[in-house]
Specification:
Shape: globular
Helix content: 25-40%
Radius of gyration: 15 Å
CATH class: Alpha Beta
Strand content: 15-25%
CATH superfamily: DNA polymerase III subunit chi
Number of domains: 1
Distance between the termini: 27 Å
Largest sheet: 8 strands, mixed
Structural class: alpha/beta
CATH architecture: 3-Layer(aba) Sandwich
């Protein structure tokens, strides 16, 4: 997993509306990401989902097609061509080729250089993975030290998100 934190890493993101840290505990990324994407689309936000590996993106791509028979999440990967045409784009890259308002970072994907162009950045990390927790903690410290607004969300026993602190 690539480390997100390094000294001064977040100094360039002062105009981001907010950075949210989502701590997975009782449900998996595969279970929660489709719902978070749906909520983003309901707000008319375009979405980028950034992962660290093509294998993980392929699994998420499949999951977004099959997670609910009653729902449809229009999406593509950056390898499918014409990224600007897709409201939801999966990528390992750091750009914003579809003009997204929200960026979901999974698998320890780093905050992009153009972070200020998003309304929201959501770092999702697995609370059952000690390395992912340490990377998220380091990122939290860097974000808070930079003066950027950050919020921490944790799943309750029912799997719902609760803002902490």
């Amino acid at each position: 997993m690539e480390a997100l934190a390094s000294p001064g890493r977040f100094r360039y993101i002062r105009s981001v509306t907010e950075i949210l840290f989502y701590h997975l505990q009782s449900r998996s990324l595969d279970a929660v990401l489709p719902q978070l994407v749906e909520k983003s689309l309901e707000k008319s936000w375009r979405v980028v989902i950034q992962g660290a590996t093509r294998e993980r993106l392929a699994a998420l791509d499949e999951r977004l097609w099959t997670y609910d028979e009653a729902s449809f999440l229009p999406h593509a990967t950056d390898e499918d061509g014409d990224p600007a045409a897709h409201p939801v784009l999966l990528t390992t890259g750091s750009g914003n080729p579809n003009g997204a308002s929200v960026r979901f970072l999974v698998e320890g994907a780093p905050v992009p250089q153009d972070a200020q162009s998003y309304a929201r950045i959501v770092l999702i990390f697995d609370g059952n993975d000690p390395e992912a927790v340490e990377v998220a903690r380091a990122s939290w410290r860097d974000v808070k030290a930079s003066g950027v607004e950050a919020t921490y969300w944790r799943q309750n026993d029912a799997g719902r998100w609760e803002k902490q602190g």
